[in-house]
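Q: My labmate handed me this sequence with no annotations at all. I'd like to see what the chain might look like in three dimensions before we decide whether it's worth expressing. Could you predict it?
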Amino acid sequence: MGTKVLTMLEPLWQGFPPVDPLAVSGSASCTLPPRYESVRCARNFTRDTLQGWELDELFDPVALVVSELVTNALRHAVLAASEHAGATPPARLHLMRWSQRLICAVRDPSDDSPVAGEADSADESGRGLYLVESFSDSWGWHPLSGVTHGKIVWALFRLP
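A: Here is what I predict for the chain of 160 residues:
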């Protein structure tokens, strides 16, 4: 993998489960404009990427998790911030494949930590992270450091 790709992915390594960045066998990312249609675009991007990696059988659980992560980023970070500040950086979806792992990561401009709710709660907020936890092998988040504000929320899938 080239130095340019490693540099682009550098902020993503913080907070991830232990993986060797040099062992990445594939990576792809896309910008998510501050519109709810971006959730559909993220699912389409995920489907196309997984097909290219011959991982079609993982599409359903991965697409559900990607949809939840992107919805959360848009609802709680991008759209909320754009109402107050105007020019808010967009969210980004990153998909990274290793020989035995797939990581879906969404970067957003909010410094607020994600909060998982209860599955049986009447409050809709937070239930998406319960789905992320249920359908992925693990998930987590990490604030970005330095001059870049925001965070990365990621989910890991073990590959068959």
